[in-house]
Each structure stands twice: as C-alpha cells, then as structure tokens.
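User: Here's a protein and a ligand (iron/sulfur cluster). What would the complex look like?
Assistant: Let me lay out the input and then the predicted complex.
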Amino acid sequence: MQKEYNEIIEQATAEHKLEKDEIETLLSCEGSTLKLLFAAADRVRRTFMGDEVHLRGLIEFSNYCQRNCAYCGLRESHKSLPRYRLDTAEIVAIAGAAVPLGYKTVVLQSGEDSAYSAELIAVIACRLKEELGLAVTLSLGERSEEDYRLWRNAGADRYLLKHETADVELYGALHPDMTWENRKKSLYLLRELGYQVGSGCMVGLPGQTLSSLAKDLLFLKELDVEMAGIGPFIPNPNTPLAKAERGSVELTLKMIAIARLLMPQAHLPATTALGSIDSKGRQKALVAGANVVMPNITPNKYRRLYEIYPNKICLDDNPAHCRNCIGGIISSLGRTVAEGAGHSPKEQFTLGLG
Ligand code: SAM
Ligand code: SF4
Ligand code: FES
C-alpha cells in the first residue's frame, strides 16, 4: 500500500491529475505517507507560487442574509442575531486604513443582502480601485448575470463563491432555498465574465464522505479556479446543525495539499476557520500547500456579529494587531508577505497588469 500512495503522490506532483479513486486513497493516507503528501504539496507551492504569502483584507460589510444555509449563523432564521450594514463611507474608510498596513486586495463579503443595489456595489468597487488602488474581490453570494456584469465592468477583479459541496444530494439537503444547478451556473457565469474565480468547500459536513470530498476537488479542477478556499465545517449552536461534529484539521489539510497538487497555480488560503479550531491551523496549512491568508479588517464592534460559526479568531483584535500577528506567522515560516496585488499567475490575468 505504501508504494501505491507514493506512486499516486509522485504522479500528481508531475502531472497535476488524479482519478477520483486516487483522490479518495490520498484522503485516507496516514503517518509517513501523510508527511510525504504535505511535503509534495509544499514543493509544488514553492515551484509554482514562490515563497510569498498574499494577504487579502476581509471586510464583512453586512450580516443580513435572506438565505437559510443549514450550517451558517447568518441564516435568515437566526432571528436573535443583531444585524448590521456598513455604508459606502465606512467601507471606503476601512479599506483606506488597510492600505498603509500593506494590503493590496480587499474582499467585500456579506450575507445575501439585496438592500445593497447592484449600482451601489459597483460604486463601492470602483472607488476602492480608483481612489485606493486596491484589487477588489466580491463575495456577496448568488446574484443576477446583470449584477455580476455591472460589477466586473466597474472594476471588480475577483469573485469568491464557494460551491460548499459538490455532492449534489448533500448540497440539496443543506440549502433549502438554493440549487446545485444554479450554484454551478453562477460560477461558470463568473468565469465567462472574466473574473478571477474563487470557489471552495467545507470539510466535515454531516453526511459528507471521502467520495463527496473527491468530487469537490474534481469540481474545483474542472472549473479551473484561480482560488480555492477549503476550510473545516464548524457547527454553530444557532443552526439546525448545532449538534453535528466539526470537521477535522487533518482532513482539511489533506484537502488543501491535494488541491495544490491538482491546481499548482491556484491561490489557496490558510483559512480563518482552520485557525479557529487549531491555534496553529493556518501555519500548518501554509506548509501543506497554502499561500494566502485573509485577515479580518472589519472594525471590532461588528466582528462578533458576523458569527458564521462560534469561537472565530481575532474577535477582539484590531486590523493593525492582526496585520502584525500575520506578518510574524509568515516570517516565522521563512516566507515573505507579497508586495504585489496577487492576481492569478495565469497568463490571461497577468497580461497588462502591473
Ligand atoms: N453569503 C456569501 C456566500 O454564501 O457565498 C458569503 C458569506 S458566507 C458567510 C462565507 C462562507 O462561510 C461560506 O461560503 C461558507 O463556506 C462559510 N461558512 C458558513 N457557515 C460555516 C460554518 N458553520 N463552518 C465553516 N464555514 C462556514
Ligand atoms: Fe447566507 Fe452565505 Fe451564510 Fe448561506 S453561507 S446563510 S448565503 S451568509
Ligand atoms: Fe488576528 Fe492573529 S490574525 S490576532
């Protein structure tokens, strides 16, 4: 069996391709083979993406959501959660304060909140680009083709829409008011509109199997994402999944490592969720294939209210503190904070970009 694992890792390192059963085999590796997998992913990361770690400043600008995803604390049915919305001036000010901290990208994230018109989001994206020179990632969930087009034309560079799980049955069970078909359609639409597309999944969802996880990786590979966010599922007491078990750190790291072997040029974040269930989670991810961190730059008074899952890290820390903390983590690993905007290294996204 040892040989079989080694052969699969070698093949994936050289060809960046795996069959579904091979992915499932790698997802069950342990001990010395697991170390080999992480080392291979780390090598591929260094070869294709270098030693720089890209920082994306996350602005959680609204916790209103009209959806009811079974796992998420922002779901509409969580009535006791106080809700907030930031206005344009606040968002621009938060992003402006991130520039002197060295941020080159901000991620605007919210629940699915139709109170922000497409035009308003377009104005905000445009101001962040034109006035502050930032690369802009949007993560607002599913919207219409017209909205996505308007934002792209206004200058949004990237869109983050996790597919959550590519197990169609499980997707249906977790999303009472959404369909896998529409999720997939939205992601392909974003691709057609020329966004750098980010997607990703949770690891350890109730009912998820190694076969489901292999499907997640094959879906990300098929979509040829520029970014893949892979984090553990963390049960939230205010959701129907309150009593479910959380995802495992090790399985999440395996998913990140295999993602790196399959998609050498993708940006892979060491997720906040991983850092929230293991104090060294982000460090572990950064040496198992990851090359991005998304520190929270939302003002403290709102952080607690963006309660996707409990015990999220950094709730009492401010953006300057988090920036220092992350800088320390990155240099302790012998890596550097990236100087540039951190666009996808794929040719179509780097031509003409400074
Ligand atoms: N509403 C947008 C969307 O769904 O794409 C963006 C915001 S949503 C809160 C961002 C991500 O949080 C989701 O893509 C999901 O993967 C993650 N998330 C939600 N609940 C979670 C949980 N209990 N554990 C881990 N991640 C969770
Ligand atoms: Fe809303 Fe996104 Fe949470 Fe689903 S995951 S309930 S769409 S914020
Ligand atoms: Fe916020 Fe470490 S990143 S305190």
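Summary: The mean pLDDT is 97.
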